[in-house]
């Protein structure tokens, strides 16, 4: 609607220009040519006499035309005529019509933003003031120039058009006061020019720097790949199904397979990116309510490549493979943000730890092999009904398990090395993720904080820590296959 309105106004003025008579001689033409020479304009401006009730003004951008209302010249003395024509020529030299057209386009796009309309008024005032100051700087008499503006306003009844740069613009009273005030013009010395350049550079550099410091959305797969292998390692077959009601849940890396049982997407992301679930925000409503069974397996060639890597690098590659799985099947998009979050520090209680250290050669009765019959290694855990059983896990992994129970990041500050076995029993409250609860849940037992202190000889201390947070920008349910 805004564009259509301006097009109508433009066509109306274009019709006036076509009907106007081109002046080739006379008092106005002679004065115009003299003013052009005074201001160093090489190209002669076309002046046309119009019978329309409009004030003198410049129309057009590429081939500007000066519209001169019929009957106004007898009202102006030579000095008045010269200042009015000088004002209009300065609009041409400053390319004010081009600036006005650009701002019209901005207003049409950002019509809903009040600041854009406010800026339009300020631009009109500033371009009129700039021309006023230029006329006075060139030797124009203040009183004569103010009289010229008033005589134009008395003669013309038409409102100034947006697409025409004219002398009758901005706040008339303010303009007259400004014209008649001594010392209104200010020289743009070197320091002021330098200040303007610095301001312009800051306007350009600030958004670019902000964009670099706050990366845009990236695919979950866009993590650094292994430096030992340029090829992306992926699972050859992937099966994702909605979980049936079950008590047990957890992750299992076994040989060439990855298995997640009764796991939410949030827990899958936490495991794939090695962050706790408290540092994941956003995402769809089913992020923590719907649970999935995921089984992925790799081919022999992929397994051989992993086995050829050092263990830390192989573990990193496995994380990348799960990240790729989430990207391909959940269409996951992530964004990083830095926030200060509440956390716990896991420390040793003053009476010392009450943990049993796992020894080499220990065997366990449950689950020595994964679903494909391949040994799964010595590390394992089981969590159900407020009971956490840990077999041969380091304290860093224990801190991650406690993070999942407390929905708050737990840092390992115990200083304990080695792997440990223990069973922790407590009464879960509504804020803890203790796994599916069955009828055997002990409602009379201690809280998890008391249980950690009494049964493990450890303690949780609260603290605030700045941490990197993963914001889920997009995720979709996978198709079951």
Rg of Cα set: 39 Å
Strand content: 15-25%
Question: Which sheet architecture does the biggest sheet show?
Answer: 5 strands, mixed
Which sequence of strands runs across the widest sheet?
1-2-4-3-5
The number of distinct helices, counting runs of at least 4 residues, comes to 13
pLDDT averaged over residues = 80
Count of individual domains: 2
What share of residues is helical? 25-40%
Which runs of at least 5 residues are low in confidence (pLDDT < 50)?
Answer: 216-230, 366-376, 433-442
Measured distance between first and last alpha carbons: 51 Å
Question: Which secondary-structure class do the elements indicate?
Answer: alpha+beta
Beta strands, count? 18
Described by the principal axes of the CA atoms, the overall outline is elongated
Report on this structure:
The chain folds into 2 domains: 2-186, no CATH class; 218-474, no CATH class. Residues 216-230, 366-376 and 433-442 have low confidence and may be disordered. It has helices spanning 2-19, 27-38, 78-94, 96-109, 114-137, 142-155, 172-180, 190-213, 265-272, 300-307, 311-330, 395-406, 448-456, and strands at 21-22, 46-50, 57-59, 65-69, 164-166, 218-219, 237-242, 250-254, 257-264, 280-282, 291-297, 333-348, 356-357, 380-384, 387-394, 409-412, 419-425, 458-474. The strands form 4 sheets. The chain has a 5-stranded mixed β-sheet with strand order 1-2-4-3-5, with helices on both faces. Strands 6, 10, 12, 16 and 18 form a 5-stranded mixed β-sheet that branches. The protein contains 13 helices and 18 strands. The chain is an alpha+beta fold and 481 residues long. A hairpin with a 2-residue loop joins β8 and β9 (257-264).
């Amino acid at each position: 609607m805004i564009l259509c309105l301006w097009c109508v106004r433009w066509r109306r003025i274009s019709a006036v220009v076509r009907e106007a008579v081109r002046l080739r001689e006379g008092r106005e033409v002679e004065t115009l040519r003299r003013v052009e020479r005074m201001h160093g304009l090489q190209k002669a401006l076309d002046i046309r006499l119009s019978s329309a009730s409009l004030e003198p003004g410049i129309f057009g951008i590429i081939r500007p035309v000066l519209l001169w209302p019929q009957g106004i010249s007898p009202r102006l003395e030579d000095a008045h005529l010269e200042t009015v024509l000088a004002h209009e020529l300065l609009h041409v030299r400053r390319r004010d019509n081009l600036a006005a057209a650009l701002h019209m386009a901005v207003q049409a796009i950002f019509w809903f933003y009040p600041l854009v309309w406010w800026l339009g008024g300020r631009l009109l005032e500033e371009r009129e003031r700039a021309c006023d100051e230029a006329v006075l700087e060139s030797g124009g008499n203040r009183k004569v120039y103010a009289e010229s503006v008033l005589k134009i306003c008395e003669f013309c009844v038409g409102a100034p058009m947006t697409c025409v740069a004219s002398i009758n613009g901005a706040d008339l009273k303010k303009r007259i006061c400004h014209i008649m005030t001594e010392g209104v013009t200010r020289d743009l010395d070197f320091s002021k020019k330098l200040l303007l350049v610095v301001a312009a550079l800051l306007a350009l550099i600030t958004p670019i720097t902000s964009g670099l410091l706050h990366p845009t959305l990236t695919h979950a797969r866009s993590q650094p790949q292994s430096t030992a292998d340029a090829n992306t390692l992926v699972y050859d077959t992937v099966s994702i199904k909605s979980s049936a009601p079950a008590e047990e849940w957890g992750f299992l890396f076994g040989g060439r397979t990855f298995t997640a049982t009764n796991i939410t997407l949030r827990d899958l992301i936490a495991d794939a990116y090695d962050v706790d679930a408290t540092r994941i925000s956003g995402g769809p409503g089913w992020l923590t309510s719907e649970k999935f069974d995921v089984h992925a397996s790799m081919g022999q060639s992929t397994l051989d490549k992993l086995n050829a890597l050092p263990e830390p690098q192989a573990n990193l590659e496995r994380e990348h493979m799960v990240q790729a799985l989430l990207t391909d099947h959940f269409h996951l998009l992530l964004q990083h943000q830095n926030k200060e979050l509440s956390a716990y520090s896991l420390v040793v209680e003053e009476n010392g730890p009450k943990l049993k250290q796992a020894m080499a050669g220990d065997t366990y009765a449950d689950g020595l092999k994964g679903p494909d019959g391949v040994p799964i290694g010595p590390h394992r855990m089981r969590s159900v009904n407020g009971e956490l059983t840990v077999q041969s896990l380091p304290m860093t992994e224990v801190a991650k398990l406690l993070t999942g129970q407390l929905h708050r990041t737990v840092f390992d500050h115990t200083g304990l090395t080695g792997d440990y076995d223990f069973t922790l029993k407590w009464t879960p409250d509504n804020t803890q993720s203790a796994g599916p609860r069955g009828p055997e849940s002990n409602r009379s037992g201690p809280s998890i904080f008391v249980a950690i202190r009494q049964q493990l000889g450890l303690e949780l201390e609260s603290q605030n820590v700045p941490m990197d947070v993963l914001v889920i920008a997009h995720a979709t349910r996978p198709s079951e296959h």
